[in-house]
Amino acid sequence: MDSAAWGEQVARHSRVFKPAGLGPFPVALILHGCGGKTPFLEDYARTAVAAGWAAVVVDSFKPRGLSPLDAKLTVCTGLRVRGGRRAADLFAMLAWLDGQAWADPSQVFLAGWSHGGWTIMDAYALGERAAAITGLADAAPERLRRAVKGALLVYPFAGYPALTTRHGWGEGAPPVWSVVAGKDQVVGWKAPKLALDRLARDGLVVDQMFLPDATHAFDDNKANDPRARYRPDLFAEVQTYFGGALKACA
């Protein structure tokens, strides 16, 4: 399958938020965690709209026929749709944006939470292997380099088999904003920091927000992991951080 065809399928299940007016608007692509698309991400989409960006909350599971239970049992456990494979959705949505009159496909920001962060990181780390791993014949790192102006990674999964710490992102990668939770019981804080430090050593501009008292999914008031502790104050702080990153890339 090519990127445009898969993009149509993914977009059919995703939700678009736009500022007032006709555009074209810069676009933030928002990628959910391994449990699937949840309502708190729509608040981040509204943050993007307030900063003058359109936002697309991308659903990676419905196009693949995965229910929330399927996701918990197979994606969250690493059996299916690992970050490199899911990176197909990024290339596909970039192709889809080319055909949207309201979108400026040359001004894109990527934002990912947990598994979504892994997806963004692997999309870059795959390099020339992108087509082979994603299954999209036209997936190529040049598309990311041309379109993407920045990335936000919120408690991203970065342990094995994620690729960033071992391979980096190659040439032309964008500036990175990141949020790491000090009491993250799912992905920890050491592996994400190792990956982010690798990017910084490679010369990328990397901003790291470390929240020492935050758990995984601290910004999701409906998190299904009983270890997660919702922190509305930190949620607001990260929304402000996201808005600042978007303004810096405008």
Automatic annotation (TrEMBL):
InterPro entries for this protein: AB_hydrolase_fold, FrsA_esterase
Record keywords? Hydrolase
| An annotated Gene Ontology molecular function | hydrolase activity
Q: Which PANTHER family match?
A: DIENELACTONE HYDROLASE DOMAIN-CONTAINING PROTEIN-RELATED, POLYKETIDE TRANSFERASE AF380
Name the chain's protein: Alpha/beta hydrolase fold domain-containing protein
Taxon lineage: Bacteria, Pseudomonadati, Pseudomonadota, Alphaproteobacteria, Caulobacterales
